[in-house]
Amino acid sequence: MVEFVLVLPILMLVLFAIIQFGMTFTHYVALTDAVRAGARTAATSRFSPTRTTDVKTKVTTSSDNLVAAKDVTVTSTWVHGDDVVVQATVPYSINLLGLVIASGNLTSTTTERVE
């Protein structure tokens, strides 16, 4: 019983660290999917007058449970066959028992060809 009481806090700390890392990884996957959806929208909306706004809206609405991307950039010449690059950034922090272990920005970039 004494050994269990001594080891339990360490096991709980490791368990909480795994949960926090899993949540951060889930946010990264959601961000990557949202950027991919935005790049696909950008690739198919060459003639739209509001194409950049449409792409930013698509990235924001595609990330369901994620905090809205704080920085979405769309770079392209909008010429058929050229690349369109969509990049988004979302803040993250990993907290263990109230202490911030790591924090920063998750960034994802996707490149597609303009159709």
Proportion in β-strands: 25-35%
Specify the overall morphology. rod-shaped
Unreliably modeled segments: none
In total, the number of strands is 3
Major sheet: arrangement of strands: 1-2-3
- Helical content class: 40-55%
Largest sheet: 3 strands, antiparallel
- Provide the structure class: alpha+beta
Radius of gyration: 20 Å
Amino-to-carboxy terminus distance: 67 Å
Q: Give average pLDDT, whole number.
A: 90
N-to-C SSE string, H for helix and E for strand: HHEEE
Q: Count of helical segments?
A: 2
In short:
The chain has 115 residues and is an alpha+beta fold.
Describe the structure.
By secondary structure, the protein is an alpha+beta fold. It contains two helices and three strands, in the order H-H-E-E-E. The chain has helices at residues 2-44, 51-62; strands spanning 71-76, 83-96, 99-113. Strand 2 and strand 3 form a beta hairpin. Helix 1 (2-44) packs antiparallel against helix 2. It is rod-shaped, with a radius of gyration of 20 Å. The termini are far apart. The mean pLDDT is 90.
Q: What descriptors fit this protein?
A:
30% strand, 115 residues, alpha+beta
How is the topology of this model organized?
Elements: H1 2-44, H2 51-62, E1 71-76, E2 83-96, E3 99-113
Antiparallel strand pairs: 1-2, 2-3
Helix pairs in contact: 1-2
